[in-house]
Amino acid sequence: MSAVKRLIVCGGNGFLGSRICKNAVQRGWDVTSISRSGAPKWDAVTSSATPPPWSHKVAWECGDILRPTTYAPLLKGADFVVHSMGILLEADYKGVLRGQESPIAGLRKAFTAAAPRPGNPLERGVKDSDPDIRPPETRAQLTYENMNRDSAIMLAKEAAAFSCAAFVYVSAAGGAPVLPARYISTKREAESTIAREFPAMRNIFVRPPFLYDSSRPITMPMAAMTGVGAVFNGVTGGIFGNLMGAAGIKPLKVDVVAEAVVQALADEAVKGPIEPPQIEELANKAWRSTML
Questions:
Q1: Which run of H or of E encompasses 6?
Q2: Which residues does 181 contact at the CB level (< 8 Å), separation at least 6?
Q3: CA angle, 144 then 22 then 10, to 5°
Q4: Of 25, 32, 40, nearest to 73 (Cα)?
Q5: How far is CA 16 from CA 10, 110, 222, 253, 258, in A?
Q6: Cα 62 from Cα 187, distance rounded (Å)
Q7: Is 199 helix (H, G, I), strand (E, B) or coil?
Q8: Which of 88, 153, 262, 283 would you call most buried, defined as having the most Cβ atoms within 10 angstroms of its Cβ?
Q9: Ranges of H-type helices in the chain
Q10: What is the C-alpha separation between 226 and 221, in angstroms, rounded?
Q11: In what order do the strands lie in the sheet with 58-62?
């Protein structure tokens, strides 16, 4: 009988992360979530405020992705580590979704931000013992560099130090006309740095399009609009693909991506970038395995 796999999900209490935890639990894996607040606020990630039965099998730990000393000890003995965190806007985009800040104000902040753009933590010589991986000039804010790039690189570094077999970075299929170019460029920088610096791990870069689920109502009309964009992109032969970015790619149900992430970890042949068509293939493979 094979040993039970141990999975760490940083951002495991989020929209996608919680579903990754769910799918791993269903496979009988030992699952730990790491986030600043511990367990999810369930009505923010599902349709109910009541914790689902599977959630009692997850260890909901607290840790700060920008402070490795708060989470590194939890990686000991892990087979797999997932980074499922990031920001869409450098402004408080969650405040936008909750109605606490107007979308116009959020976009204005994102496009007009003029913060310094320091190198990644490996280039800056950040140590595991440093209290915060952010450079002093951006320590008071969340930037694309801090959240989308540097937090992933440092998590991969810690995972490699503990000889984890595989690392998943949840990236993105592309940017969008309404997002600054740095949203996607920092994700690609994270991918290339992790692949180059930690080749002993099986690195997997999942690139999902827009994610939706009825438990988060705001995602439904947005998914519909993105679906129209995907049809338009297909009809025009993809000639506007670079301009449209993720807005021209068919959206996926969040559960499909979660299933694909866990299947990718389970399949030792899977590594490197995973584009939307491959995400669907992996999810279908995961579904078929449950039918056996």
A1: strand 6-10
A2: 175
A3: 30
A4: 32
A5: 11, 23, 17, 10, 6
A6: 24
A7: coil
A8: 262
A9: 17-26, 42-45, 93-97, 103-112, 144, 151-161, 182-197, 219-235, 241-244, 254-266, 276-291
A10: 9
A11: 58-62, 30-35, 6-10, 80-83, 166-170, 202-206, 272-274
Whether 211 and 15 have beta carbons less than 8 Å apart is answered as yes
Cα 214 → chain centroid: 20
29 with 54: CB under 8 angstroms? no
Contact 146, 162 (CB under 8 A): no
Spatial separation of the C-alpha atoms in residues 119 and 182, rounded to whole Å: 14
The CA radius of gyration of the chain, in Å to the nearest whole number, is 18
The number of residues in the chain equals 292
Question: DSSP per residue over 24-85, as a string?
Answer: HHHTT-EEEEEESSSS--HHHHSS-SSPPGGGGGEEEEE--TT-GGGTGGGGTT-SEEEE--
Per-residue pLDDT of the chain (292 residues; tens, 9 = 90+): 578 999 999 999 999 999 999 999 999 999 999 999 999 999 888 888 999 999 999 999 999 999 999 999 999 999 999 999 998 877 554 554 455 555 556 556 555 555 567 899 999 999 888 889 998 877 777 889 999 999 999 999 999 999 999 999 999 998 666 688 899 999 999 999 999 999 999 999 999 998 888 776 666 666 556 654 444 344 445 444 444 445 557 889 999 999 999 999 999 999 999 999 999 999 999 988 776 5
Q: CA–CA separation, 230 vs 245, rounded Å?
A: 10
Kindly report the backbone phi and psi dihedral angles of residue 175, in degrees, each rounded to the nearest multiple of 5, phi listed first.
-85, -155
3-state secondary structure of 5: coil
